[in-house]
Amino acid sequence: MQKIIKDGVIVADDWVRLSLNEDGTVSNVPQDGDVIVSLAAWLADAPRWQARQGRTAVWLAPDDDPALLAASLDRLPLVAVDFPAFADGRGYSIGRLLRERYNYRGELRALGDVGQDQLHYLWQVGFNAFEIKPTQNIELALQALGRFSDRYQSTFREPEPLFRRRVTRD
Amino acid sequence: MYRYDAIDHRIVRERVEEFRDQTRRFLAGELSEDEFRPLRLMNGLYIQRLAPMLRVAIPYGHLSSVQLRKLADIARRYDKGYGHFTTRQNLQYNWPTLESIPDILAELAEVEMHAIQTSGNCVRNTTTDAFAGVAADELIDPRPYCEIIRQWSTLHPEFAYLPRKFKIAVSGAVEDRAATLVHDIGLHMAQNTAGEVGFKVIVGGGLGRTPIIGEVVREFLPTEHLLTYLDAILRVYNRYGRRDNKYKARIKILVKALTVEGFAAKVEEEWAHLKDGPATIRPEDVAHYASFFTAPAYEALEANPAEFTAKLAEQPAFARWVERNTRAHRQPGYRSVVLSLKKTGVPPGDATDAQMDAVADWADRFGFGEIRVAHEQNLILPDVKEAELFALWELAKQQGFATPNVGLLTDIICCPGGDFCSLANAKSIPVAEAIQQRFDDLDYLNDLGEIDLNMSGCMNACGHHHVGHIGVLGVDKNGEEWYQITLGGSQGNQTSLGKVIGPSFARAQMPDVIEKILSVYVEQRQDDERFIDTVRRLGIPPFKERVYAKDH
């Protein structure tokens, strides 16, 4: 069972990401157990996924449109966003859109090429769970989560930006 | 000037510690080269030909004398005693060791400076008019908005991993001195007919491999919406900008692909969700940030005092310097002084530690302790009394900073080129020097008048060659350095991109080639016509004909 960082602590995790066939379909769907499926697989047959014994979550690729998931969000215990390469920053915008535009309040997980140097930003845009890549130490990554004590921008965590907070406080 | 509060200080210190840890992990082998590269770039650290290069941010080109002394001190203790001012109004050190970078950053933090986002695929240092706040033609002081943008862009969690670098420039004057039309976003401050202050928003300009002049996506954006609108533009770019090919990843390519109308529609759609949100700028916010940029304690002076006009009459060399290297000031009895960092034999934009210390001293003695960095790679003392210009001139001469060539042919914008930069195809500094040596006759230079000669060592165009009246681009041909010439480029209100005149030249030919181009101008100009106007009137052919004519 893998360990992930969730809400600021290291926890055991048994969600399994189902891999896709080349044509985008999923074979050998387990009836129990918690699985994370692609957006395409979910949209193709959401009722079938929901009829399973285990829970089903959806992962988004960087070029997936989170709007397509908007209608499903209240049924999803977890939404994951894949970072195929850590320099690919599209997932940060996806995170904000899910949280701020579509009001998703479940677990929002970053997976893929995710390491300690991204965690602060990911947390700010709304992610609360992180699968740390195997080449990095998860305990050190956890420490990095609290590296910055403040930030300038309006973020999901603190909508009121610093430039206004410091003026209001004066 | 803007001053940090306790939170600014804390954030920058936390960033220093983060980078110290990242450097340690890299040196210990815990981070691979591939993992460390984007992290170090986001903190201005390149690995160059000979040593690491550290680029320090100078927000919108504003420096205090205290900061400049610190930059001099770092040059002395961590580098080889000099630094290089860039076209992004920043400073580069060419010789620090990798291990020393965290300590340099900690020292910079003491004087409210950093290297955050001076490189990498993120929002870079915002630039503005080097004469902001003092220019006679200023409509609205852009600096409070520059500071608001600086804070917004600093460590922005959503936009740290963009498809490519992202540059913003702001202009608040009649004459655009910030090259806003060749930035990813250019903002022109303006008032609408109702008297509201706002911005004309220009997107998708840029130089580099595919030079493009930016297009207007919004004629008038009230200032209160600045940040929500920027968020909308950046989000559209972050989500839809190309990431498969780094040469097609700048926002200009996205704007072209969608058309400006299509791009603007996407931004408006995004903005509809963000408009009037928590990042809306209130009047009290503007007032707070404007309070850092109030006019200094100017004395009430007569313009053209007797001792000044007497020196002008007595000393033609001084008069020439005043004419070329000083600018009108909105306050009577004051002028802004441009210190030329373009003395022949010195790489354009370079300054030694002693020179930086001297400039800091002059800023305290003659001004209000402020210095500006111009994107033309010169330093500016914004507030000098006319009565004290002569004393300053004498001192500037001793430091080699009084060459009266600002705006002339030898005031060359030039990237570090192949002498330092690992991206370069060709050296640029020796070519600049050869041209400066050929045209060292001040009378002739003055007769030629205003000519922008811009030079880049590769198509990344750090030397802005596309917008030089004469542009020089270093190219690689079978491992040899060659130079391609463009004519007709221009920055400012009439921004245009230069056209290539023909096949490139060997380095040794360059001074002759420039001389031939200028001879056509001298023969063909009408009255006081500037070089660029002659090029515009005649087009490229007569210049091309002369340059490529067979020698007999």
What can you tell me about this protein's structure?
The complex is a heterodimer of chains A (170) and B (552). With 170 residues, chain A is α/β, with parallel strands linked by helices. Chain A is built from 6 helices and 8 strands. In chain A, α3 (90-101) links the parallel β6 (78-83) and β7. Chain B has 552 residues and is α+β, with helices and mostly antiparallel strands. Chain B is built from 18 helices and 21 strands. Chain B has helices at residues 6-27, 33-41, 65-78, 101-110, 143-153, 226-240, 251-258, 260-274, 283-290, 306-314, 316-325, 353-366, 389-398, 429-438, 442-448, 510-524, 531-538, 541-548; strands spanning 45-47, 52-56, 62-64, 82-85, 91-93, 127-128, 168-171, 185-191, 197-203, 215-222, 326-328, 334-339, 350-352, 370-373, 379-385, 413-414, 453-456, 470-477, 480-487, 499-500, 505-506. In chain B, α1 packs antiparallel against α2 (33-41), α3 (65-78) runs antiparallel to α12 (353-366) and α10 packs across α11 (316-325). The longest helix of chain B is centred in the N-terminal third of the chain and has 22 residues, at 6-27. Chain B is globular and about 60 Å long. The mean pLDDT of chain B is 95. Chain A binds chain B through residues 86-90, 92-94, 96, 101, 115, 117, 120-122, 124-125, 144, 147-155, 159-164, 166-167, 170, and chain B through 5, 7, 10-11, 14-15, 17-18, 22, 35, 38-39, 121, 148, 151-152, 154-162, 227, 235, 238-239, 243, 273, 277-279, 281-282, 284-285, 288-289.
